């Protein structure tokens, strides 16, 4: 029996792998998840009554995008395709996390040093995309949520430091460092000699991809679009560091 046929999805949080025919009906209606989103919406609405419009918009956007990621058929698609799960992680870390960082009180950023935030977010990204740890997330819902929440929390902390650090040069270099390591992981996935992720060895053909093609697509997603927000931020903060010097010379 090969690895693909022997792998069990019995404890996979998002269920068994869908096919093209069944995907649109695979909404995640987990009562605990729906309750959590409802409670979070009420708590945030009450807590943000006196917040700025920026904070309200940031939390609303983060809540809405997260709901789409975890409730819609995207959740099921991530069981079948590695590229879908990588895309899921990219949206979580490169869109939801900066929205939360932008919405949280600026004073919180003073408690988040740049270097530890960069180290922890990098470690979380590489850890959860190491084949063994990635596979473990299919073995129990608790491990799945440990993956999702650790990625979200660590990158929210990183984005808080990148956006709020009073030293623009350090923030720009931090964003550039994060982009480089993410691009390196993406390149490793693109050029890996074989498919590395056991859960997807027997699930991708239903969507027209071989496991290797699915992995290469995932690597390209992480290599290019995932890097764009970090590169834009790096450019902004580095220009912010340079322009005052130019004004001083004038």
TrEMBL record:
Coiled coil spans: none
UniProt membrane topology term: Multi-pass membrane protein
Compartment annotation: Cell membrane
Protein name, entry field: Putative membrane protein
Membrane-spanning residues: 31-48, 60-82, 88-105, 112-130, 142-163, 175-197, 217-236
GO cellular component: plasma membrane
Assigned keywords, A-Z: Cell membrane, Membrane, Transmembrane, Transmembrane helix
Statement: the UniProt record of this protein carries the keyword rRNA-binding: no
């Amino acid at each position: 029996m090969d690895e693909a046929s022997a792998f069990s999805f019995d404890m996979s949080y998002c269920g068994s792998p869908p096919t093209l025919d069944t995907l649109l009906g695979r909404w995640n209606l987990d009562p605990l998840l729906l309750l959590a989103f409802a409670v979070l919406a009420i708590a945030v609405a009450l807590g943000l009554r006196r917040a700025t419009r920026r904070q309200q918009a940031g939390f609303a956007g983060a809540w809405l995008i997260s709901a789409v990621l975890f409730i819609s058929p995207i959740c099921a698609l991530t069981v079948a395709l590695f590229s879908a799960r990588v895309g899921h992680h990219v949206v979580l870390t490169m869109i939801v996390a900066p929205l939360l960082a932008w919405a949280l009180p600026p004073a919180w950023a003073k408690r988040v040093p740049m270097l530890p935030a960069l180290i922890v977010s990098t470690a979380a990204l590489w850890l959860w995309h190491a084949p063994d740890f990635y596979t473990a997330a299919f073995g129990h819902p608790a491990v799945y949520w440990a993956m999702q929440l650790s990625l979200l929390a660590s990158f929210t902390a990183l984005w808080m430091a990148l956006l709020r650090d009073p030293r623009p040069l350090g923030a720009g270099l931090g964003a550039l460092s994060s982009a480089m390591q993410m691009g390196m992981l993406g390149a490793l996935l693109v050029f890996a000699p074989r498919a590395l992720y056991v859960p997807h060895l027997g699930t991708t053909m239903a969507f027209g991809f071989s496991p290797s093609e699915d992995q290469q697509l995932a690597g390209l997603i992480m290599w290019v679009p995932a890097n764009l927000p970090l590169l834009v931020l790096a450019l902004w903060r580095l220009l912010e560091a340079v322009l005052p010097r130019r004004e001083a010379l004038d």
